## 1
Amino acid sequence: MAILICAPDRSNERLAQDLSTHLPKVDIRIWPDLGDANEIDFAVLWKHPQGLVKSLPKLKAISSLGAGIEHLINDPDIPKDMPVGRLAGPKLAHDMATWLVGRVLADWLDFKYFDQSQQQHQWAPKPPHERPVIGILGMGHMGRAAAEAFLGLGFDVIGWSMRGQGPDGIVTHQGESGLDQVVSTSDYLICLLPLTPHTRGILNARLFSNMPRGSVLINVGRGAHLIEEDLLEALVQQRPAQAILDVFTTEPLPQDHPFWSHPQITVSPHSAALTDPAEAALLLSESYQRVMAGQTPIGLVDLERGY
Ligand code: NDP
Ligand code: OXD
């Protein structure tokens, strides 16, 4: 019985150590040191190399090392009936909500203006704009946490999801007409959708033409939700007037990409909510124990549906 961790772009030692404290009797291996591949029954994968899964003949289940699962959906070697979980713990959702609240508050309260006033030794009070409406696309693990955080601060929040269901107190729409309604009434539009064939490219010219003039787009979902050229056009029309982007089609964002120096775009390096090794280890140990007891891993994903 062994667990394999394979996340080539991350340091895996700390996670392996934390996992060992929860599962002291289990052999934890870090790719590429597979040892005897027949002993590996659970794999923790993040942007793993293609072909790896095929080389693990006794694999019972997989967990993503993050909330996203595109690397698993896109791996043709993973059978559709393989139980696949993902890590979407309370800390990750809380961190995402905190980050989004921070971004919206800094913009709405115009902290840049006060910083500039200080630099010019100017005493220049001004009240904030009217309280904005926050629209959230995706009312899943992250979307719900963000919605509740904004609601708790007294903002009007509206949502959009596949089934039109969200937390209590938040009107949640569904379908094309529901999307139009959310987009056209949101001062801050936040994308927290998973990347699926239905949501790829959803932040496009049509959607932008529906956004109120002066509104702000925040994309923390996936880079491929956004059609980058459409955004550059839309910013000229001030619909949206600003974009706050944490995820990109190509990551890291290439050095010569126009987003870096665009005056209406704020860039951050895919860091709105980072997987915490301690939380990851706790969830993974639970997931592993569940799988060994014949249950499904935590955060079971529907591979056909794509999230
Ligand atoms: P979930 O899978 O928990 O939630 C997905 C939500 O999107 C659900 O509400 C679902 O509706 C809705 N949805 C899915 N497809 C559609 C569709 N076609 N039309 C309308 N609604 C749809 O995702 P998470 O909350 O865990 O993650 C959200 C995003 O955040 C993901 O893209 C993830 O990769 C990203 N992420 C980004 C991070 C960062 O640092 N930037 C960190 C972690 C995650 P329903 O509820 O009806 O099923
Ligand atoms: C994730 C992410 O999916 O980091 O966990 O975006």
## 2
Amino acid sequence: MTETLIEALERARGWLKAAGRVLVITGAGVSAESGIPTFRGGGAYWSGFSPNELSSVRGFDANPCLVWSWYEERRARVRSAEPNAAHRALAAYTTRADARILTQNVDGLHLRAARGLGTPSAANDPIEFHGSLFKVRCRRCHRPGPNPETIDASSRDTLPRCLRPHCRGLMRPDIVWFGEAIPEENRLLSIKLAREADVCLVIGTSLEVYPVADLPDQTRDTDGKVVEVNVFPVVRGTTNTAANLVGKAGDVVPELLAGLP
Ligand code: OAD
């Protein structure tokens, strides 16, 4: 017999109540209800575009205007979007519990939800594991630079450039592209957090991209539990180790976290 959502919620809430540390992993699905497309599936980013053309160093070197115009469109869409009920519930939860958010999203909505609660910049800020749409760094010397308000991608001459006089390389989005490694400090931190967590709460991700895809199993390897919130769940396991909460993040996450210490 399959478990109902209410039964799975009860089990997941029991684990969260008993938990010392919690790692929250999020993906594009947590921002879907803010109007940001996911990457995979119908109407998603990768269904109409080529990841290699738009999100790789090779693609950028071949056509930086095309890459920047795609990112500028995403930046504009995110600027006019708002954090949803899931982002807000998570922001409140991570201020009161020993819980840390690690997001694959580059939209900054977790951070905006935290600031919306008046939470100052803190050691507990969400980890933006794949970078941010609102950070740039030099393609040539790799140094970060100020985030331009808007980017004119109509020609190579109007694209943002490194401010260092001896460099003047093109600036690129500070995002981990295909074929690039996660910065070592963040990679090691993610493994530490996953292994120390009593519960790994996985929200709105297809878990198709490594190394994030491995993290829930790191929690289970150290006797922790995995709770998943997804409209199409992907985490497998017995009722002793996993709870699949099937539904939209904006509905399920506030319900899951309400009243938890
Ligand atoms: P995907 O597009 O692969 O997966 C989105 C997941 O969200 C799917 O499992 C959906 O079922 C689920 N979903 C959709 N709407 C939802 C909702 N309202 N509530 C809950 N779940 C929902 O996105 P990611 O797993 O985040 O990397 O993709 C991982 C990485 O692949 C991205 O960070 C991106 C991409 O290539 C980079 O660009 C570096």
